[in-house]
Each structure stands twice: as C-alpha cells, then as structure tokens.
Amino acid sequence: MRSMRSIRPMHRRHAAAAPGGSGALAALAALAVLAAGPGTAGAATPSAQTEYRASLNAVGSQGVHFTSVATQSGVTIRVDGDTGNTSGAQSLTVKKGSLSEHVSAMVVGSTGYVKGDTTALHNVIGLSNALARKYAGTWLSFPTSNSALGQLVGGLLNSEVTSELQISGPFTYGAVTTVNGQRARAVHGFVSTQSGSKVPVVLYVAATGAPLPIQEVTNPGGGGGSSAIHGTVTFSHWGEATNEKAPGKSLSLLKLVPSATSGATSTTGG
Fold first, then answer.
1. Which of 82, 92, 252, 265 could form an S-S bond across to 242 if both were Cys, CB 3.0 to 4.6 Å?
2. Which secondary-structure segment (H or E) carries 148?
3. For the purposes of burial, counting CB atoms within 10 Å of the CB of 129, is it exposed (0-12), middle (13-18) or buried (19 or more)?
C-alpha cells in the first residue's frame, strides 16, 4: 500500500510509486466542479465529511485487494496487493517506454521482504550495480521497525488501511455514478504534497449498504505525460483473509544497505 498509497507522492499511497519519491514500494481527486449532494427523496443526506468518516469506520480492520496505477512524466507504476491481519503482499512494476522494473514485497509479522530484478534493486532499493546483479531474484529481509526500509511494506496490514485513505477537507460531494459496476457516491477532498500544496482527490464509496471504498483517484484531470501525477487505486474483496508465508530463504538487506536508507530515487531508465 505504499502501494495502495504507493502512488500518491502527496499522499503516502502514491508517494512510494512517484518518480523521484522515497520508498518506491511502499503506492490517489477531482476538480472543483461538483454536483449537488446525492440522496433519496425524503431522506436526509449526510454531509460529505460525515460520509467520508463513515467510510473509514466501515473499513475498520478488514482485509482488501487493491490495484494502484499512477502515471507521471511518462512513467507508469502499477501495484497489485492484498492486506492481512499480520501479513500482506504486493507486486510493483515501473515502466517507461520499453524499459521496466519489477519488485515483489511482503510483510510477515515484524519482518519485511523484497525481491526484484537487477534494475529495480539498483533504482528502487538502492543497491550498487554489482550487488543488484548478484541478488536479483533473491528475497531480502529487513525489520519493519527500520523506518527507512519499513516504508517498502507500509500499508500492507489491515490496521494500516484507514491511514492509507486519509484525505483532508473541505469535503464536498460529486454526483452519484457507477464505478466498476457499483453505484457510488463521490466524496471530494485533498491531500498535501511535501511542499505543502494541495492536490484534489475523489474517493468513491458504495452508495448502498456499507459505504466501503470502491476507488480513489488523485488528480483525475492529470495526464500520464505531464509532470503532475495522476493515479487510481481500485479496491475489491473487502473482508478477504490474507495469510502470507515467509520465504524459505532470505538474506539480510541491512547487510547490503548498512545505511538503511532506501535509495528509492527510481524511475526506470532515469
């Protein structure tokens, strides 16, 4: 889930996936043209902020599958993952033109694991070219208590999901629409960049039943070729149970990156 949020540079889910951001694993908003708040005749409609809070409450500590896609400056980052009570996993692919990088990551208990190809180990994890070639395809482990490396698997536990969904107001409604075959209410808000500027976000929540998140979009007006990030995170299988097993063999990443500062200056080819 920097995966979920791995694609929020301005938002933790997108931050990891953003080119030039830190923690490339670890991954999204609408413009202010909003329709009247949705509702049914004769029924009071909660405020957009109340609806957003109700969505977080509905999430609780449930597991979820997520797919995150972000684009920025011609770079596309896709993250697919599943969260669990004590373990979770995700895969990350970064593409720029014909070049690509691939990384898999998981957390089991208090230990994180990453495995990548040569390019990803160098650009994303920060290994030297020699070490990246040597350990390509090898599981590398690290304690999640390490703040620099822990972000590589941040957001993969159920208890962290609501943190990955944090947005700020002012909150407003968009029109009721259909997202992935479900009727959804659009709740508009913002996330802040590291420089302090605000980026628009729209969170689509189920219009009937529990208001669980269906999709989150950051900067929907942005394009993949622009310098501004555009990202979408789609949620499904709420309540799923994920039980990842630790790799049979792994090597300590701390021994390879003594400074424990994930290079994460990635992007493919640049």
1. 82
2. helix 147-150
3. exposed
Q: By 3-state DSSP, what share of the chain in percent is helix, strand and coil, each rounded to 5?
A: 20, 35, 45
Report the alpha-carbon distance of residue 155 to residue 90 in Å, rounded: 10
Task: Report pLDDT digits (tens) over 38-84.
Answer: 333 334 578 999 999 999 999 999 999 999 999 988 899 999 999 99
Residue 184: alpha-carbon gap to chain centroid = 21
Its sign, for the CA torsion 116, 119, 156, 223, is: negative
Take residue 259 and report the two structure tokens written for it.
Answer: 């400074």
Contact status, residue 7 vs residue 18, Cβ threshold 8 Å? yes
End-to-end CA separation in angstroms for the chain: 24
pLDDT, greater one: 173 or 264: 173
266 in Cβ contact with 101 (< 8 Å): yes
* In contact, 192 and 95? CB cutoff 8 Å: no
Token pair in block for residue 20: 């030039």
- CB atoms closer than 10 angstroms to residue 67: 18
Q: Tell me how long the chain is.
A: 270
Write down the pTM of the prediction.
0.79
Supply the DSSP string of 55-113, one letter for each residue. HHHHHTT---EEEEEEEETTEEEEEEEE-BSSEEEEEEEEEETTEEEEEEEEEETTEEE
